[in-house]
Amino acid sequence: MLKISIQERVLHFKQPAGTSRGVYTTRKSWFVELTDGERSGIGECAPLPDLSCDAIPNYSEVLRHFCDQLEQTGELDYEALRPYPSMLFGLETALRSFAAYPSLLFDTPFSRGEEGIPINGLVWMGSYEEMLQRMEQKLEQGFRCVKLKIGAIDFEKELDLLRRIRERFGPREVELRVDANGAFGGLAASPSGVDDALYKLELLSQYALHSIEQPIRAGQWANMAELCRDAPLPIALDEELIGVNDPEAKRQLLHIIKPAYIVLKPSLHGGMAGCREWIRLAREEGIGSWMTSALESNMGLNAIAQFCSDVYGPGITMPQGLGTGLLFTDNIPMPLEIRGNALWRVQ
To answer: 16: pLDDT confidence band, cut at 50, 70 and 90?
Structure first.
């Protein structure tokens, strides 16, 4: 007989985390633990307010419903869970760790501590001085892929940050990614708005960027498709994928917009099952992808990293976005550490 308990926990950021939906100082996660008295498995359900499609007022009640269902059947109802990606991811993790108890979620070289996963150094939104200091820290720590969240300060100052990096490091030495979080155009973007976004992308392209994530707000498929066709640098989709849970809708989105990449977060984009679906459909369209965490605790990060190593490994070379485990003052201990520019699982 399976029994599932749910524990709510509030995590506190070491410093305010600026995102496209405001600034977070705390975040809430729901931890689900499965047990049959002998084995156990645990997973993290971590929706982001105002961003996740399942960040709903009655989250606890809906999660309890799916836990009760899992207790009774021993199986996940993937179709019913499609609209609730953070719940699906937490329950998938718990069920997988229960089934593998006391072994690894995925038996990969990363999970066994034999190889690391290259990751990008993330520079959070802030003032010019704050972002410059954070950027310098990432370079000093040995990161060779740096991602800057832009759109929070004056665009000219953001260009200056990129210029400073390129004066010191060429594109072969440091890979640069930027994430605009939709800052270059809202839902009412006009043709002139698309032209403005293209102009900004032209200015950004002089710094030999690897890619830009979500230059305009999600939901503007025609405008985004035009940008992907005409922009002088590769575009990656992130927020655009949130809430698109039906396989045919996913296929249509990728076929119409044709981005260079998609950026996958299991808590936002359909759990492990949904991310595998996105990756398969993207590959059919010749679209690349990488994986990132979404402000989960080390519990969720550990699951995402092991899942990532199973999907893309062994021998992952493209930097992933798996470095958020150091953000909280009261994180959950996990055998994870960053060595240079890679995340390692310590045995």
So the answer is: confident
**Under a CB-based contact definition with an 8 Å cutoff, are residues 2 and 35 in contact?**
yes
More confident residue, 247 or 188: 247
Compute CA distances 311 → 78, 107, 181, 235, 280, whole Å. Answer: 19, 12, 26, 22, 11
Catalytic site residues? Answer: 149, 265
Using CA atoms, how far apart are residues 184 and 191, in angstroms rounded to an integer?
13
Count other Cβ atoms within 10 Å, centred on residue 12.
Answer: 13
Closest to 88 (Cα-Cα) out of 117, 58, 52: 52
User: Residue 221 carries which side chain, given as an amino acid letter?
Assistant: W
Distance CA 94, CA 33 (A): 6
For the stretch 102-114, pLDDT in tens is 889 999 999 999 9
Pairing of strands 342-345, 211-213: unpaired
Instruction: Specify the range with the lowest mean pLDDT, choosing from 12-26, 268-282, 286-300.
Output: 12-26
- Compute the distance between CA of residue 202 and CA of residue 141 in angstroms, rounded to an integer: 30
∠43-49-52 over CA atoms, to 5°? 65
